UniProtKB/TrEMBL annotation:
Leader peptide range in chain numbering: none
The entry's keywords: Metal-binding, NAD, Oxidoreductase, Zinc
InterPro entries, per database record: ADH-like_C, ADH-like_N, ADH_Zn_actinomycetes, ADH_Zn_CS, ER, GroES-like_sf, NAD(P)-bd_dom_sf
Stretches assigned to the Enoyl reductase (ER) domain: 12-370
Protease among keywords: no
Originating organism: Gordonia sesuvii
Protein name: alcohol dehydrogenase
Catalytic reaction list: a secondary alcohol + NAD(+) = a ketone + NADH + H(+); a primary alcohol + NAD(+) = an aldehyde + NADH + H(+)
Recorded superkingdom: Bacteria
Length: 375
């Protein structure tokens, strides 16, 4: 079928809305008619060149929609099912999946290749015949996607699909960074640095896990206000401003966990985060940096003698097929706020404006909403 999407031909350029050819699902694949797509900072890393990807690339990795077609051998999905995309595929049979670590499934090695899991070919092609890579094997900046069933999670029909898209990346990653990989317990002190589509959900997760103090750090006043609305007990403009106050209100113990959810991370942020963190605590690094960056400044004396940890985290350290249903239960119970996460919605052809708004700090999360004229 012919459809349209936001395509990046070269790093440094703007997203271009182009018509492209989308193939039907082959064995193990599903075609989905999307309702919405979140606008994550990770896709902007394609534009800056910080994240390597074959070009041209169809952006987007946070979406929800309705199954349109199923390929041969697909038994877990049928036409009409409601689904959320997972930016980490979960094959269910590799070693990490078998031990319950679906968020580091071996198929994740394909994420930046753009080649389908089923047959190592492109399922999408540009109008001039080039193979079109799909961001995270998804490409949700298009109203239709053809993806492997390992990249989809079925959800119940009562969940609003537009909001459900956020579960595919921002909500699961943020919540899990505090609750799963962060291991927040009742009475803990948690600091979240960077209040965007991921950080705001780290705030929600830490608050619901019973943290005594949830400190949100962001230079944008609007984002600090949203953090307070969704569970933060304290807010600060910078880690430097937060340091003496965290020391005082924790009686010198500092944070159990500091979570770095900034949109663009660099090595200079690690030591300030470690300084905010107490003995035996951890810094969870969630934000993405340049793929070639090798520098991380930290005091090794402090790291060793105070037994601190620096921990990476993807998809919140949780398995997509368990985390998304669990989060939906939190939503039903009124413990997870989805409705306030989207600041502004956009049409597909407004995608560059939307990313300008993100960079200006105007959005917690921007979202593309597809209309009848997109299909």
């Amino acid at each position: 079928m012919k459809t349209k999407g936001a395509i990046l031909r070269n790093p440094g350029e703007k997203w271009q809305i182009e018509e492209f050819d989308l193939g039907d699902p082959v064995a193990g694949e599903v075609q989905v008619k999307l309702v919405s797509s979140g606008l994550c900072h990770s896709d902007h890393h394609l534009r800056t060149g910080d994240s390597p990807a074959p070009m041209p690339v169809l952006g987007g990795h946070e979406g929800a929609g309705i199954v349109h077609k199923v390929g041969p051998g697909v038994t877990n999905f049928k036409e009409g099912d409601h689904v959320v995309t997972a930016f980490i595929p979960a094959c269910g049979v590799c070693e990490p999946c078998s031990r319950g670590d679906q968020n580091i499934c071996d198929e994740g090695a394909r994420l930046l290749t753009g080649l389908s899991i089923a047959d190592d070919t492109h399922r999408a092609h540009t109008s001039d015949g080039l193979g079109l890579a799909q961001m995270c094997l998804l490409g949700t900046f298009a109203p239709y996607i053809t993806v492997n069933q390992a990249s989809l999670i079925k959800i119940e029909d009562d969940i609003p699909l537009q909001q459900a898209a956020l579960l595919g990346c921002g909500v699961a990653t943020g919540w899990g960074s505090a609750v799963e990989i962060g291991g927040t317990h009742a009475g803990d002190v948690v600091v979240v640095v960077g209040i965007g589509g991921v950080g705001i959900n780290a705030v929600q997760g830490a608050a619901q896990a019973g943290a005594r103090i949830v400190a949100a750090v962001d230079p944008v006043p609007f984002k600090r206000q949203m953090a307070e609305k969704l569970g933060a007990t304290h807010t600060f403009e910078s880690m430097e401003e937060a340091l003496p106050v965290i020391g005082e209100i924790s009686w010198g113990k500092m944070a159990n966990t500091t979570i770095l959810t900034v949109g663009e991370i660099d090595g200079s942020m690690i030591q300030p985060a470690l300084s905010l963190t107490g003995k035996g605590g951890q810094v969870v690094v969630v934000g993405m940096g340049n793929f070639a960056s090798m520098d991380a400044q930290m005091n090794l004396f402090e790291l060793t003698l105070l037994q601190k940890r620096v921990q990476g985290g993807i998809f919140g350290g949780a398995s997509p097929r368990t985390q998304v249903p669990n989060l939906l239960q939190e939503y039903r119970a009124g413990k997870l706020n989805l409705s306030d996460l989207v600041t502004n919605t956009y049409r597909l052809d407004q995608i560059n404006e939307a990313y300008d708004d993100m960079l200006a700090g105007n959005n917690i999360r921007g979202m593309i909403v597809y209309g009848d004229d997109d299909y």
